[in-house]
Amino acid sequence: MRATILIISPDRFEAPGMELFDFPPIFAGGPEWLTKPVLIALLSSVVVIALCWAAFARPATVPRGWQNLGEYAYTFVRDEIARPHLGKDTDRWMGLLFSVFLTVLVWNLMGVIPLIQLPLAAYIAFPAVIAISVYVIKIYLGVRHHGLLGYLRGIIHLPGLPGWAYGLYAPLILAEVLISSLFTHFVRLCANMFAGHMLLAFFSSVGFWFLFEKLTPLGAGVGVLGVLMTILLTALEMFIQFLQAYLFAMLAAMYISSGLRGGH
Asked: Which residues are listed as membrane-spanning (predicted)?
């Protein structure tokens, strides 16, 4: 697997670009789909399964170690993500929401792990798969519990809205609930991870170039600034990675709730 942090020319500094996300097959002549992002996806699945197994396979009355960490994460997802939106249906959907939160969080954290340094959610196909799955569940629940017409009626109903205004309001709210909500679910996550990875790659490249490749008295200050910015942005990026996993799982809970309740 090749490194993704530095894009260096022998004669001049070149800022990182889209080549950071372009990976050939792992093995020469191997299948085109077997690339570094695919390996990271498989590794992320193993990590999530291993964490849950270590935390919950043999639960003790007094939690310690991995169980303590797992119960803290589970409680966070239940109380801060699921329960505010799903209420009495929380426990039924906790398996899905807990898996979504952990998976997206691990995907994101791969961007700051040495030698990996690639947030998987920056590839739009990966969060799109989860978002589409949640979307299908939302529509299925809405039609199953309320019928097609009842579900659509629940979406467009707005107490106090004059009848003549529904001609304008109904198409807009239907487009938001049935179309744009799907794309905003995964595009927000992808865009944040993509932008964060590009910023980290840029400043780390600046530090490496001016401190190691082309060290000069004048350029040393720029190199030090690049290193300091890389450190600060890494800390900020870790916070954003957690925040985006939280928002992604929270939106999943909201959409599932909208299907169950038949509203928007």
From this structure: 38-57, 93-116, 122-143, 164-187, 193-211, 218-236
Concatenating the DSSP letter of every residue in 169-207 gives HHHHHHHIIIIIHHHHHHHHHHHHHHHHHHHHHHHHHHH
Q: What is the dihedral of CA 243, 247, 250, 255, to 10 degrees?
A: -170
Query: Can you name the residues that pair with 13 across neighbouring β-strands?
Result: 8
**Residue whose pair of structure tokens reads 């927000």 in the numeric block:** 188
pTM comes to 0.89
Give pLDDT tens digits for 141-195: 999 999 999 999 989 988 888 888 888 889 999 999 999 999 999 999 999 999 9
Tell me which residue has tokens 């990026």.
237
The three-state DSSP-derived secondary structure of 57-115 is CCCCCCCCHHHHHHHHHHHHHHHHHHHHHHHHHHHHHHHHHHHHHHHHHHHHHHHHCCC
Spatial neighbors of 37 by CB under 8 A, at least 6 apart, are 23, 118, 120, 123, 126
State the Cα–Cα distance between residues 170 and 251, nearest whole angstrom: 22
Q: Give the residue extent of every domain in the chain.
A: 18-261
Measured distance CA(15)–CA(3) in Å, rounded: 15
CB 74 within 8 A of CB 246: no
Per-residue CA distances from 70 to 56, 114, 263 (Å) = 7, 24, 33
Contact 127, 105 (CB under 8 A): no
Ranked by mean pLDDT, which of 9-23, 103-117, 216-230 comes out on top?
103-117
The pLDDT assigned to 19 comes to 82
Locus of tokens 């789909």: 33
DSSP letter for 1, please: -
Predicted confidence (pLDDT) per residue in 184-220, tens digit: 999 999 999 999 999 999 999 988 888 887 777 777 8
Q: Within 10 Å of residue 61's Cβ, how many Cβ atoms? A: 4
